[in-house]
Design goal:
The protein has 475 residues and is mostly helical. The protein is 74% helix and 0% strand.
Length: 475
């Protein structure tokens, strides 16, 4: 009888928060001192949580293990999508589609509208690559050099670069966070993207207006486009650039509009990229399949171009997939032992209506970003904490996935010790504190998301979500 009572013991808030505090300590030491990836620290956190559950709550390992497996299985579709996305990126690079998008995107720079053009350019590149890091580490560096030549404050230029990079990262189906958020929330990938457009377009529109107005202060100055022209020349000499190649991403957009499921749509996009590689770039079948599997290693001799185009492949996604599995292992232990529910219950005591529920979600994502220093955890943990509550209140899962991205993804770049904030600062050579106030898109996104929650703007009810039939039936 005592064993049964011990086994059924529910965690207190103190017991629930201890493993999170210890895990954050391990993560912080690993990121700031050891400067290592967070995979193993997350596993250590899962072990700490499991030990506390066994010792203080009487949990059984078999039950904890089942919780881990169930947690990972809940995102298996996203993991499959990420693997296909890796294939798509490889095929789109070798097929010349990504180079074509970058080639035309680089030509939108204008002396009178450098800042807003920087936002647009980084948006295009990030949408094409699905990576804010790649965008900032390549085109972003070049734009910082141009800003220096124009005597534009580097913090202001970095804010424009980061705003554009995170807009593209947030909406691109090639982005890992864009796949993770709906997977955790129980939403469909393309439904998630379409739902984000409402809040994202408002934040993005305001950002473009602000940078346009500020840009008038620097109008009339001449831009040294030598670095940009060098990139254009290298891309043009290594790839057959043609507007026809733009039809491939257009085809994927059309499939999204026609509500084609994510996996088939991305597989078709991958196949079209492979066909373009054979027809337009003269690639062999071996090159095409190699790019899909292992990605592309660009060797043009131009460091910026090589950095932009060395990526992709199914294997290239394994780092992200393994990180997601580690994060979900930690979250799975918290969830199965009841600790996550205990913390969520405490947080939800402040959320009486839809607006306050979304506010709590946004604040939780920001809280995890600040304490854990990682955007994946900032999406995964709050997503698992509040998923059941959104369903309980009759809200479609895409509302949760949008709130996760509106806060967890974009605010990560604003925190100096976060992996994203540290990376942006290192790539651009601009301290986080210098660009923080100018990353308007990143600052506005969580605010607009909360306003949408309080006003009911585009908030979808569960009963009105045609893609949530399976979700509705889950206990």
């Amino acid at each position: 009888m005592n064993n049964q009572q011990k086994q059924k013991k529910q965690p207190s808030f103190l017991i629930s928060i201890i493993p999170i505090i210890l895990t954050i300590a391990v993560l912080s030491y690993s990121i700031l001192v050891l400067e290592i990836d967070i995979h193993i620290p997350l596993i250590i956190g899962a072990i700490i949580t499991a030990v506390i559950a066994v010792v203080f709550l009487g949990s059984k390992w078999k039950d904890i293990e089942e919780g881990i497996v169930e947690s990972i299985m809940s995102t298996m579709q996203a993991i499959l999508i990420l693997a296909v996305v890796g294939m798509l990126i490889g095929s789109w690079i070798v097929g010349g589609i990504v180079p074509t998008l970058i080639y035309y995107g680089l030509q939108i720079l204008s002396p009178s509208f450098f800042l807003v053009a920087s936002v647009l350019l980084c948006s295009v590149v990030s949408l094409a690559t699905g990576s804010s890091w790649t965008t900032a580490g390549t085109v972003g560096i070049a734009l910082i050099g141009v800003a220096q030549g124009l005597d534009i404050p580097l913090g202001l230029a970095a804010g424009a670069i980061i705003s554009g990079a995170y807009f593209g990262d947030k909406l691109s189906p090639l982005s890992d966070t864009t796949n993770l958020a709906p997977a955790v929330a129980g939403a469909n990938l393309f439904d998630h993207i379409k739902h984000m457009i409402f809040t994202t377009s408002i934040s993005y529109g305001i950002t473009l207006v602000i940078f346009t107005v500020i840009g008038f202060m620097f109008a009339g100055k001449e831009i040294d486009t030598s670095a940009i022209n060098s990139v254009l020349d290298v891309i043009g000499s290594n790839y057959n650039i043609s507007p026809i190649l733009l039809l491939v991403p257009v085809a994927v957009i059309v499939m999204v509009a026609l509500k084609v499921p994510a996996l088939p749509g991305l597989i078709v996009g991958t196949a079209l990229g492979g066909i373009c590689a054979l027809i337009f770039q003269g690639s062999s079948l071996s090159d095409m399949f190699g790019a899909m599997m292992d990605g592309v290693t660009s060797e043009t001799g131009n460091a910026m171009v090589d950095e932009l185009l060395t990526r992709g492949g199914m294997q290239g996604m394994m780092w992200t997939i393994s990180l997601i599995m580690c994060a979900l292992t930690f979250g799975g232990v918290l969830e199965r032992t009841g600790m996550l529910a205990c913390i969520a219950e405490k947080m939800l005591s402040f959320a009486k209506k839809t607006g306050s529920l979304i506010l709590v979600t946004v604040v939780s994502c920001l809280f995890v970003n600040i304490l854990a220093g990682d955007q994946y955890l900032a999406i995964a943990l709050p997503g698992k904490m509040y998923k059941d509550e959104y369903k309980k209140r009759g809200l479609a899962p895409r509302n949760l996935s949008r709130a996760l991205e509106d806060s967890g993804t974009v605010t990560s770049a604003l925190i100096p010790w976060n992996t994203c904030g540290a990376t942006m600062s290192t790539f651009l050579g601009v301290p986080t504190g210098a660009y923080f106030m100018y990353a308007f898109f990143n600052l506005l996104s969580p605010i607009v998301s909360v306003i949408a929650g309080y006003t009911g703007f585009t908030i979808m009810k569960l009963e009105d979500d045609p893609s949530a039939e399976e979700y509705k039936g889950k206990k």
